[in-house]
Amino acid sequence: xxxxxxxxxxxxxxxxxxxxxxxxxxxxxxxxxxxxxxxxxxxxxxxxxxxxxxxxxxxxxxxxxxxxxxxxxxxxxxxxxxxxxxxxxxxxxxxxxxxxxxxxxxxxxxxxxxxxxxxxxxxxxxxxxxxxxxxxxxxxxxxxxxxxxxxxxxxxxxxxxxxxxxxxxxxxxxxxxxxxxxxxxxxxxxxxxxxxxxxxxxxxxxxxxxxxxxxxxxxxxxxxxxxxxxxxxxxxxxxxxxxxxxxxxxxxxxxxxxxxxxxxxxxxxxxxxxxxxxxxxxxxxxxxxxxxxxxxxxxxxxxxxxxxxxxxxxxxxxxxxxxxxxxxxxxxxxxxxxxxxxxxxxxxxxxxxxxxxxxxxxxxxxxxxxxxxxxxxxxxxxxxxxxxxxxxxxxxxxxxxxxxxxxxx
Length: 409
Fold this sequence. Notes:
Layout: E1 2-5, E2 22-29, H1 34-44, E3 50-54, E4 70-73, E5 84-89, E6 95-99, E7 109-115, E8 123-129, E9 132-134, E10 140-142, H2 143-146, E11 158-164, H3 183-191, E12 194-196, E13 214-219, H4 220-223, E14 226-231, E15 244-249, E16 255-257, H5 271-291, H6 295-313, H7 329-348, H8 351-381, H9 387-395, E17 399-401
Parallel strand pairs: 2-3, 8-11
Antiparallel strand pairs: 1-6, 2-15, 3-5, 4-5, 6-7, 7-8, 9-10, 11-13, 12-13, 14-15, 16-17
Helix pairs in contact: 5-6, 7-8
């Protein structure tokens, strides 16, 4: 099955098409709940291009929920309830998504290939739920051992593996001393030279005890194209598994630091001393530059002179909590109370203490958002004359695209 996705002309101005080079992916475990699936799809609308679900809800004949913004791709497995699903946005950017049942066709594991005109070779994406089942010899084998271990790919294949692994290893969780259910996984990952996409030691499952269950790996020829892996705290699906997002950058754009947004405290510079220092060293610089024959070497020398002067007279801004003007005593006290409740919970580990943490944490995060919003609104309402440039400084990007050199034909 091959599905081509084209941007409709009617949605051309939608903010979800702001970056036409990237493919945005969401990963989540749904605990076989239609409510969680609907909440996840509602959050994903206009935010992601591909939604990868494990433990998805299915009824007889592999019928699942539908969504007006997504097309569902499931495995062609008969007489069993499929556990893994992939949804692709109907209004996604121009790319093709093809089911690869020729590689794997299992209720707990599916494969698709992704391609567009920016990708040199197709990306093979695996969606896996690491379920334990008995084989013909009554051995308890997990999905990695039953199916993934049999998949052998060539070294040039671009691969991404997304899974609820339910496996524990110090590679992604420093607190683990004894590995659990990782031998087959580590062997396969090392064989295909894959790297971990997750940021290590960030829990993907939170309850009274937290853990890292939801993982993603990418082959080395894909790893540099995976950006912005993170857990979205705003995605509330009412389940303990976190909603995970990351992006596939299909065309690499080289970025450099934006010199217009340098982190220097220009308001406290003594420009008189700065100018006097340049005047004193000007003659010395001119004499030395006359001795240099190469134009490139002259530019490098002059740049170093300016940098050294800046280091002496212009100090960098010190970023700390006090730099945030909206940070007030109320937030400080709430932060202390939250830390105190966490320490109490670690000692007793009971339901009441955990409930207090959840309530306090939500109140703390809500207070931060509210206070920041109020401060920003008040600032905008009182902007006068030159302060508009300060407003622009707050909103502009810290990175700019590097200009390419003009090639002579």
